[in-house]
Specification:
It is built from five helices and eight strands, in the order H-E-E-E-E-H-E-E-E-H-E-H-H. It has a single domain, classed as OB fold (Dihydrolipoamide Acetyltransferase, E2P). Helix 3 runs parallel beside helix 4. The strands form two sheets. Strands 1-2-3-6-5 form a five-stranded mixed β-barrel. The protein has a two-stranded antiparallel sheet with strand order 4-8. With 170 residues, the chain is α+β, with helices and mostly antiparallel strands. The chain is 39% helix and 27% strand.
């Protein structure tokens, strides 16, 4: 016969396995959802059956602000590519504004990478951990694409644009 202690330990062990398996399923970092709104060149809203409306910040990149040169172009290219489409979201983290930070893929094209490679966004060095994004910016600069096309003036990175804009409003 199995002792009471052994039975209790066995029940606890089985419960822990079930909880662990359920936690892995519910915290999946990949999901599919429909793009319901493109806010700007690096922020979108998705709708997912299970999770509802989700605000997504594209990981590793920073696109020009709307009032910044190439801001409208970055927004429009993102709309053209994914607005109202079903995309794959690979969740990386959640930022301090409670947005999901993730990598978006549509028809086997990684959108984050595409935007940088095409000159519509910067590699966001402060947060980027992927060499391919840094390389994409380097290639866009070399080919003088998008934000890198006007050689008469150096583009202002969005993080500096936001910082300077705040100073101008004081």
């Amino acid at each position: 016969m199995i002792s009471k202690i052994t039975k209790t330990c066995l029940v606890i062990f089985i419960c822990l396995i079930n909880v662990h398996c359920h936690a892995q399923e519910s915290s999946s970092s990949i999901l599919y959802a429909k793009v319901i709104r493109v806010v700007d060149g690096d922020t979108i809203y998705l709708r997912n059956k299970e999770h509802g409306k989700l605000k997504i910040r594209l990981a590793d990149i920073d696109a020009p602000e709307k009032d910044q040169p190439y801001g409208d172009e970055a927004t429009n290219i993102l709309k053209k590519m994914i607005d109202k489409k079903i995309v794959k979201l690979n969740k990386v983290t959640v930022d301090r504004y409670k947005r999901i930070v993730g990598i978006i893929t549509y028809e086997n094209i990684e959108i984050n990478y595409y935007l940088v490679k095409s000159g519509y966004a910067w590699c966001y060095d402060k947060y980027n951990k992927r060499e391919k994004i840094k390389l994409a910016e380097h290639l866009a600069r070399e080919k003088k694409l998008g934000i890198w096309s006007d050689q008469s003036k150096k583009p202002i990175a969005p993080w500096n644009w936001r910082k300077n804009k705040g100073k101008n409003n004081e």
